[in-house]
Amino acid sequence: MNISKLFQQKSYEKVEYIIRRHWVTFIPIVIFLIVLAILPIGVYFLLTNSLDSYLQNQAYFAAGVLLASIYYLSIILFFYTYFTEFHLDLWIITNDRLLDVQQKTLFARTISEVDLFQVQDITSEVHGIFPSIFNYGNIILQTAGAVPKFTFRSVANPNKLREVILNLATEDKKYHEKH
Amino acid sequence: MITIPISFFLIIYFVILVMLTIFFTVNFFHIILTGTTTFSSFLATLFVFASIALVLFGTWYFLQGINWSQTITIWDNSWFGQSFNTI
Fold it and tell me: For residues A20 and A101, what is the distance between their CA atoms, to the nearest angstrom?
């Protein structure tokens, strides 16, 4: 994956991790869309039982087919848009800094970054049944930078990631103290 | 009485289809142009395009044999009884 289009990598900078939200957080919307997709089938059976004469009429049938087509295409578009926003919400950890890329809507993206040596405090939290079972949660970073608080939301292995960021921050602080 | 040919619905359908195509394209190029292509994005895109093909094929299949020149009444005063009759 070539993410250089998202940020300008420095010559000594190496991307350590690219993290996204855990895939389990995508499931509720998939279930919701499956329910929406099943609805027209229910409506069709309702219509065949009670308003069959309308379905026999070519004009109403054609209008119904076109409406159903638009409905299903809209569901697919909604899925793709949600996936794109989910996919483009990512956190990049390099040996020099942390980047928070948030795709808020299709046409709104925010990128925040903080140098690792400015990280002051890291907290990881796992709350709830599904986060505990699938081991995902939030990591909250307190920084001395322009953005005082960074949050990694619903990321996998938050405890291990907390240790990784802590080690990288310690290394970066040592580097900056020397130079 | 106002009647329209049912091909009018087809025109509206194609207009909406164009709008949806624009949004699908925007989504696709968002993933490509940000350089965040992964196996999961490939799978999702494949699923989306396969679903679109399925829906369009289904639409074409069910609309075979439709006579698009026939008309549908969208307004008829007789639906409202005496209300709109002039004295």
Answer: 10
Give the A:B interface size as CB pairs under 8 Å.
Answer: 98
Residues in chain A: 179
d(CA A163, CA A37): 43
Alpha carbon of B55: minimum distance to chain A alpha carbons (Å): 6
pTM of the model: 0.84
Please give the helix or strand (H or E) that residue B6 lies within, else none: none
pLDDT per position as a tens digit, B27-81: 998 888 887 788 999 999 999 999 999 999 999 999 998 888 888 887 888 877 6
* Token representation of residue A168: 């990288």
Question: Which structure tokens are listed for B67?
Answer: 């006579």
The answer to whether residue A80 neighbours chain B at the CB level (below 8 Å) is: yes
Does residue B81 sit in helix, strand or coil?
A: coil
Start-to-end CA span in chain B (Å): 19
Every domain of chain B and the residues it spans? 2-76
Dist. CA A74–CA B87, nearest whole Å: 49
The chain A residue lying nearest B69, using CA atoms, is A59
DSSP single-letter state for residue A96: S
* ipTM score: 0.85
And the tokens for A32? 């919701």
Select from A31, A73, A65 the least CA-distant residue to B54: A73
Which residues, at least 6 apart from A128, have a Cβ–Cβ distance to it below 8 Å? none
A7 CA: distance to closest CA in chain B (Å) = 10
Compute φ and ψ for B64, nearest 5 degrees: -65, 145
